[in-house]
Design brief:
Layout: H1 6-12, E1 17-20, E2 26-28, H2 29-45, E3 53-57, H3 62-74, E4 77-80, H4 87-96, E5 99-105, H5 109-115, E6 124-127, E7 134-135, H6 137-140, E8 155-156, E9 159-160, E10 168-171, H7 179-186, H8 188-191, E11 202-205, H9 212-223, E12 227-230, H10 236-246, E13 250-253, H11 255-262, H12 266-270, E14 279-282, H13 289-299, E15 303-308, E16 314-317, H14 319-324, E17 331-332, E18 336-341, E19 354-360, E20 366-367, H15 371-376, E21 378-379, E22 382-383, E23 387-391, E24 397-402, E25 407-409, E26 412-414, H16 416-424, E27 429-439, E28 443-452, H17 460-468, E29 482-485, H18 499-507
Parallel strand pairs: 1-12, 3-4, 3-5, 4-8, 5-6, 6-7, 11-12, 11-13, 13-14, 14-15, 28-29
Antiparallel strand pairs: 1-2, 9-10, 10-20, 15-16, 16-17, 18-19, 19-23, 21-22, 23-24, 25-26, 27-28
Helix pairs in contact: 1-2, 2-3, 4-5, 11-13
């Protein structure tokens, strides 16, 4: 141990540009270190102890990064809050996480103020001007920029956007180790992909930092000495521009990003120099095989894929793995194990779909305040997030769908993701969601909701054309019985589809049959 970890690197080379805000402002490592140190001194003066938590409602950029760096060296839990939530949803997280301080950026002043109810007024701090909040400078002015005494490794506590009920905080026991050693251990994740430490590596943050993977990959890249370049909101051409401008080497993306990049006109795609790209990693949703193939053809062998959960464990597919096993999300990490079981929790043979259970060596977690949910998702020391998939003979994992999204029609299990992947390839389709709606005879019938590509007119002709394109590619029993059109799909910025918003109106007034 001893060469990596942001705090160590910043002391060794304070002049290194460690982060670039969305407005293009670069921040030196030494300045970020001093800001994080002052924050620790200020919050300790408020009485914060190791094991306490803080919440931040901040946009992508260095304000949130400083909160993260402070918490991780003071032994606190840091919860970045989803800035799309409403006041009451924010208040739930602030209360449930037992936050001892709440930081709000002025951009989110309105909902942040509503969300601050559970916390004492003197524990509310603002980046910028938020009425009724103390400026962050109240905490940090006059505090030393030096490393605090008694440093101990903290953790992030993300709230999962669960498919049912309130979100749950995924809380890991604190290790009590030195923060730099802890940060160095974190770099194992990126080293799995072959990512190397140090400059001139640059990591592009494409999605909101309140997501587990975005924090993990961005934070870990920083601890490896990479420069972080933040995007405020994702835009396909802007991403290409930033990749060329900053010589980006790695990033974390979702398949929706790929689809939108591929929709750019050929001349736009061709005008940026992307020769610096080395590890463009994607996850979070199944990627249609033709989309992934088109990205590999365009960017070369730098597109890596993985499957994992906030709770721990996962798989990895290198570009070479994927080409040999098209559609796979990869093989289990060296420290992880994959188990596929049937409804009786018995292991199933290769090629047979079942519920995916994972475990990771040395990783334990609980859903904060919900031992029942923690226990319900466990099988001995494995856990599941309810996804369905199968392992092939070589141990490569293929995803079918989420159990909660599976359609049971006439007794047959139908996986919407498979249908979505086929429809998504149609040039007139920008986005698609498939789910079950009530059917008196069959229990459920298949409904597709399509967001047409820009300039394409929705209507019966388009629906016919989309269905006709499935001929010979998808069994007739899997075809949608009807297609509705929508101007914009309800997706979170990380690409996660809010399928409930689409599905629920069709099930109003009925008990879900399955």
């Amino acid at each position: 141990m001893g060469t990596l970890g942001f705090w160590r690197l910043a002391q060794a080379d304070p002049g290194w540009i460690a982060a670039v805000d969305p407005d293009g402002t670069g921040h030196r490592a030494g300045d970020l270190l001093a800001r994080a140190n002052r924050l620790v001194h200020g919050l300790r003066a408020l009485g914060l102890q190791p094991g306490d938590g803080i919440c931040g409602l901040t946009p992508n950029g260095t304000d949130g990064l400083v909160l993260y760096l402070a918490a991780l060296q003071a032994g606190w839990y840091y919860t970045p809050v989803n800035w799309h939530l409403t006041g009451p949803e924010i208040a739930y997280i602030v209360a449930d996480s037992e936050a001892k301080a709440f930081f709000v950026h002025e951009r989110y002043a309105e909902e942040g103020t509503r969300g601050a109810e559970p916390i004492a007024p003197d524990r509310r701090f603002a980046f910028g001007d938020v009425p009724g909040f103390r400026p962050v400078s109240d905490l940090t002015d006059g505090r030393p920029g030096t490393l605090p005494e008694g440093r101990t490794f903290g953790a992030t506590m993300h709230y999962t956007s669960g498919t049912t009920g309130r979100p749950k905080g995924v809380r890991r026991p604190l290790s009590g180790i030195d923060p730099d050693d802890g940060a160095e251990l974190m770099t194992f994740l990126l080293s799995l992909f072959g990512i190397t430490p140090g400059r001139p590596n640059v990591h592009l943050v494409t999605s909101p930092s309140y997501h587990t993977a975005v924090t993990q990959f961005g934070g870990t890249a920083l601890h490896m000495g990479h420069t972080l370049v933040y995007m405020d909101r994702w835009d396909a051409e802007e991403m290409l521009r930033l990749c060329e401008r900053h010589r980006v080497t790695n990033s974390h993306m979702v398949p929706t990003h790929f689809k939108r990049l591929l929709a750019l006109p050929e001349e736009v795609r061709g005008k940026y120099d992307l020769s610096s790209l080395r590890w463009m990693i994607h996850a979070a949703a199944p990627c249609p095989v033709p989309v992934k193939r088109a990205m590999l053809d365009w960017w070369g062998e730098c597109v890596y894929e993985y499957y994992a959960a906030t709770e721990g464990g996962g798989t990895l597919a290198t570009p070479q793995d994927w080409k040999a096993h098209p559609g796979t999300v990869g093989k289990a990490w060296p420290i992880s194990e994959i188990l596929i079981v049937d409804d009786e929790l018995n292991p199933v043979p290769a090629g047979t779909p079942g519920t995916i259970y994972m475990k990771m060596a040395g990783a334990s977690f609980e859903y904060k305040g919900d031992p029942a949910k923690t226990a319900a998702n466990r099988l001995r020391d494995h856990f599941t997030v309810g996804d369905i998939g199968y392992l092939d003979e070589d141990g490569f994992l293929f995803l079918c769908d989420r159990k909660s999204d599976m359609i049971i029609s006439g007794g047959a299990n139908i996986y919407p993701a498979e249908i979505e992947n086929e429809i998504m390839v149609h040039p007139k389709v920008a986005d698609v969601a498939v789910f079950g709606i009530p059917d008196e005879e069959w229990g459920e019938q298949i409904k597709a909701v399509v967001e047409p590509a820009p300039g394409v007119t929705p209507g019966p002709e388009l629906a016919e054309e989309i269905l006709a394109s499935l001929r010979g590619r998808l069994a007739k029993m899997k075809w949608p019985r009807s297609i509705d059109f929508i101007a914009e799909m309800p997706r979170e910025p990380n690409g996660k589809l809010l399928k409930r918003k689409l599905r629920d109106p069709y099930w109003e007034g009925r008990d879900r049959a399955i």
